[in-house]
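Structure first, sequence second, as always.
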């Protein structure tokens, strides 16, 4: 292996990049565009749920319950309804996701200590929001019930007995339970997997279409030298992309980074070697740029998006898919990123994931080298 030939090929790639400003700018700014689009558009936080209320009771007690509900940040009162049929119309028009119907005898039952049911209707077309809203509603109702019990006991000259069990809950690593703190680290891994694999896949495919790859093959350069010469320039671009995406996550989205930037660089270097090598392998297999981009999306972006645990917990997937995630490199990189961003752990804790990425990089690099060898021969 000749270092001189690798340097010459690397220099040639950088020169070619500088001549294609449009592709270079796309490679640099597309990750930023993706982090902004997904970062702002993709949120798992459920609050300010639009709510309509039909208060058939119209008493201070019913108004107090409505006030407790809408005073929280989880529910937003859209308007009061006057008739029962307005409930169906409001949900059908998409005016509200939840309707609260309070019956006429609500206050009288509360004052007598009887159960006072209220009707709550959800728009089940968004099942996730409906499920979370139901949990919020139960919490508000429980607080209202406790307040009523305290008032009733106080009027009787009694004091409410404290519960013997008191749960003191602490949430580590993401105390405010902000979904962006969970999404941005995983999104970083998915973006790098997609951009880097497509970037290198299109590079070699473009040279195949223009005929310059055959000119390189006719030179004394070996397959490994050709592979490294192609890979190193895009590795530099990938590291720049990573720095931009991580910087946007920390500075713009205010996601904490509690780990070591040195550890981030080491793990990202390994991950990018494997991802870029996969893109080179795809470029050799594909016949043109369109096919290369399609294969890259199917083999890199979709598995990274769906099977990395970025959004959907791996534990909730079917067993077959859980097993399949072990061959998705983005799974390990996303776990490393979450560990570095949120938990502040380092390589001594994350070494199993790092080892998996090393194995992936070595296997794919050799696979790409052998494929290049077959093409040369």
């Amino acid at each position: 292996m000749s270092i001189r030939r690798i340097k010459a090929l690397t220099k040639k790639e950088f020169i070619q990049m500088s001549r294609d400003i449009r592709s270079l700018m796309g490679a640099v700014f597309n990750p930023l565009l993706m982090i902004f689009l997904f970062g702002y558009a993709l949120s798992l936080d459920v609050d300010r749920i639009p709510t309509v209320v039909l208060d058939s009771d119209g008493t201070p007690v019913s108004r107090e319950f409505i006030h407790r509900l809408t005073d929280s940040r989880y529910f937003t009162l859209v308007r009061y309804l006057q008739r029962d049929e307005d409930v169906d119309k409001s949900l059908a028009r998409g005016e509200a996701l939840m309707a609260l119907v309070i019956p006429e005898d609500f206050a009288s039952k509360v004052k007598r200590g009887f159960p006072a049911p209220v009707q709550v209707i959800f728009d089940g077309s968004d099942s996730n929001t409906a499920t979370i809203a139901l949990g919020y509603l139960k919490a508000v109702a429980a607080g209202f019930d406790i307040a009523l019990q305290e008032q009733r006991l106080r009027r009787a000259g009694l004091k409410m007995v404290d519960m013997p069990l008191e749960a003191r809950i602490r949430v580590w690593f993401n105390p405010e339970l902000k979904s962006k703190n969970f999404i941005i680290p995983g999104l970083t891994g998915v973006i790098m997997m997609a951009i880097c694999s497509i970037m290198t896949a299109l590079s070699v495919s473009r040279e195949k279409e223009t005929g310059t790859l055959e000119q390189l093959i006719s030179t004394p350069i070996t397959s490994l030298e050709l592979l490294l010469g192609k890979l190193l320039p895009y590795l530099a671009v990938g590291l720049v992309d990573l720095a931009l995406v991580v910087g946007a996550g920390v500075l713009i989205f205010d996601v904490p980074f509690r780990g070591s930037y040195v550890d981030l660089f080491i793990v990202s270097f390994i991950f990018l070697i494997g991802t870029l090598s996969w893109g080179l392998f795809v470029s050799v297999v594909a016949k043109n740029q369109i096919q290369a981009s399609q294969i890259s999306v199917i083999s890199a972006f979709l598995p990274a998006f769906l099977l990395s645990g970025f959004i959907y917990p791996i534990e909730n997937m079917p067993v077959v898919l859980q097993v399949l995630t072990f061959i998705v490199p983005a799974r390990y990189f996303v776990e490393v990123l979450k560990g570095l961003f949120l938990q502040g752990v380092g390589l001594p804790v994350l070494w199993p994931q790092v080892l998996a990425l090393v194995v992936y990089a070595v296997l794919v690099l050799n696979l790409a080298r052998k494929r290049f060898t077959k093409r040369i021969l």
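Margin note: The chain has two domains: 3-43+178-376, 49-155.
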